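Inverse folding, one chain.
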């Protein structure tokens, strides 16, 4: 019984304290003829970063401004060819914003991936971008931050 109470209190403390590390999630998954990049951000942090990048112009952040910000702060290269990240769906739920992007796959076999991500790093202290990939049936994970803004890997 004491263990049950202890676990309950630990869970409540974790819930009340929230995240101790600012983080955004990026999930890059290979499909038959394209890649899907799912993204999740803290809504307030992304809006602050978008406004800061635009010298604080305005107070409401539009989907077009978010797409422009991501185009500047995300870069994906596959087999040494730069790939356009086309953001489609954007949805806001609570304190988070979710984005789904599509990347055309111009090659049959992916051998090398370069991913550069500077989202929120200049604006949010100690921010981390976590990239999870599922390409060529191989799952990998990477943590990007102030000192590591780009990752390259091969298959």
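Residues assigned per position:
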């Amino acid at each position: 019984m004491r263990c049950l109470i202890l676990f309950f209190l630990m869970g409540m403390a974790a819930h009340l304290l929230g995240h101790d590390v600012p983080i955004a999630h990026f999930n890059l998954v290979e499909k038959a003829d394209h890649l899907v990049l799912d993204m999740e951000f803290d809504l307030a942090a992304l809006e602050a970063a978008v406004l800061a990048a635009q010298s604080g112009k305005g107070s409401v952040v539009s989907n077009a401004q978010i797409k422009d910000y991501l185009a500047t702060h995300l870069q994906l290269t596959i087999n040494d060819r730069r790939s356009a990240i086309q953001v489609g769906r954007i949805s806001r739920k609570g304190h988070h914003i979710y984005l789904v992007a599509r990347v055309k796959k111009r090659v049959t076999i992916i051998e090398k991936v370069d991913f550069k991500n500077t989202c929120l790093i200049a604006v949010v202290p100690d921010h981390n971008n976590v990239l999870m990939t599922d390409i060529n049936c191989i799952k990998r994970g990477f943590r990007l931050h102030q000192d590591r803004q780009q990752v390259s890997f091969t298959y």
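The helical segments are 2-17, 43-53, 63-73. The two ends are 50 Å apart (CA to CA).
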